[in-house]
Amino acid sequence: xxxxRLLEVKSDEEFTELIECEWLSYEQPYxxxxxxxxxxxxxxxxxxxESMRESTDRQLxxxxxxxxSSWLKVVDDDHSGKVVGAAQWNIHHSNPYPNGVEExxxxxxxxxxxxxxxxxxxxxxxxxREARMSKPHVLLNICFxxxxxxxxxxxxxxxxxxxxxxDELKLETFIEAAEPGIPLYLKQxxxxxxxxxxxxxxxxxxxxxxxxxxxLPPVRWAFMRRxxxxxxxxx
Length: 235
Hints:
The protein is an alpha+beta fold. The chain is 38% helix and 23% strand. The protein has helices at residues 15-27, 32-37, 47-65, 113-132, 154-169, 182-187, 207-215; strands at residues 4-8, 69-76, 82-92, 137-145, 173-177, 191-198, 219-226. It has a seven-stranded mixed sheet with strand order 1-2-3-4-5-7-6, with helices on both faces.
């Protein structure tokens, strides 16, 4: 087993390797939902690198602007501290949606049909939060691990960190989970509440909209919760 260690992300400089790990994790296998937030735009041999740079700057800016945000990373000490996984937890001490969910504008997509498609998809993603999370809570916003390090304990380390914070604060914890992560979350005391599907549709879709639907097919995700007094199974 690799020599894994969990660390809190403390500096801006750490984000470059962090987001590179994010991209590699969601490319293997391909994850259409991740493309909504981090698309490869443009053409040419540098398109991916330039898009990743934009994604890094944007996610760092979001983190800086959000006092609820905590990023974690798991490193492999056998490979010079290589980042093998990361997660973002949001700790909300009050209702984050007092005025409802803000309008979603996927400004990082090119103007036009692509941006409209992505914005509509993100609206479907965020809308249930207003009904479910309009109270103090802890949210696992994102969690990813490189393919070669999956099932080595990295995911559990990051999930336990948030669960312990929630227990200390006596808050509910929420996760919007992709299918592969559900067993891990169940082991940490989460329950599966229901499923949702992100499938942006419009009347009389253009050819470009249809192409985007093929590139970014409907996404099915599970809403999961853990009670404020939840105890991880097996602990």
